[in-house]
């Protein structure tokens, strides 16, 4: 084997390692979101599915799916995205997962409120370090321990409920705009 062939082989190993790392992280992010939706007991018919820009327009019509993957456009506004665009490695070295969750006071009654939820995570040995915002401590989650997912679900639910408790700018009859909970500085 020539030195160049060794170099090409090293390149192939590096790419394969990256893809394994990426797939592991994206799978973890998807597992956290699907676990959170099950934790909330959202009906399966209203859970995550592929989305198009028409799915999350801010109109008076309640979206058919209450949850969709999201990314931020160039102006920082959330737009529907596929899972691979919604779970991205960012400059801070953490993977960021974003999704829109729509809540309401009563089913099929205006108003409803889309929420942009974001969490960041990174592998740490066999576990993952998860942050719900820049100013909160990390939560260690082990894929082998379901109780660590329960702790994360409870922390995320508490964060959302505290956001509602502290928010004072509810507009009763206006078109709802997505509210950001968690990280807000991401570019994707």
Provide structural commentary.
By secondary structure, the protein is α+β, with helices and mostly antiparallel strands. It has one domain (3-181). It is built from 3 helices and 8 strands. It has helices at 3-39, 83-86, 146-166; strands spanning 67-72, 78-80, 87-89, 95-104, 112-124, 127-131, 139-142, 179-181. Strands 1, 2, 3, 4, 5, 6, 7 and 8 form an 8-stranded mixed sheet that branches. β6 (127-131) and β7 form a beta hairpin. It starts with a helix and ends in a 7-residue tail after the last strand. The model is unreliable at 55-62 (pLDDT under 50).
Main attributes of the structure:
single chain; 188 residues; alpha+beta; 8-stranded mixed sheet; 3 helices; 8 strands; 33% helix
Q: Short description, anyone?
A:
This protein has one domain (3-181).
> Which class best fits the helix and strand makeup?
alpha+beta
Distance between the termini: 42 Å
Q: What general form does the structure show?
A: elongated
Largest sheet: 8 strands, mixed
Average pLDDT taken over every residue: 82
Radius of gyration from the alpha-carbon trace, in angstroms: 19 Å
Number of distinct beta strands: 8
Oligomer: single chain
Helix content: 25-40%
Q: In percent, how much strand structure appears in the residues?
A: 25-35%
What is the N-to-C succession of helices and strands?
Answer: HEEHEEEEEHE
> What number of domains?
1
Which stretches of 5+ consecutive residues score pLDDT under 50?
55-62
Number of helices: 3
SSE diagram, text form:
Elements (H helix, E strand, L loop, with lengths): L2 H37 L27 E6 L5 E3 L2 H4 E3 L5 E10 L7 E13 L2 E5 L7 E4 L3 H21 L12 E3 L7
Parallel strand pairs: 5-8
Antiparallel strand pairs: 1-2, 1-4, 3-4, 4-5, 5-6, 6-7
Helix pairs in contact: 1-3
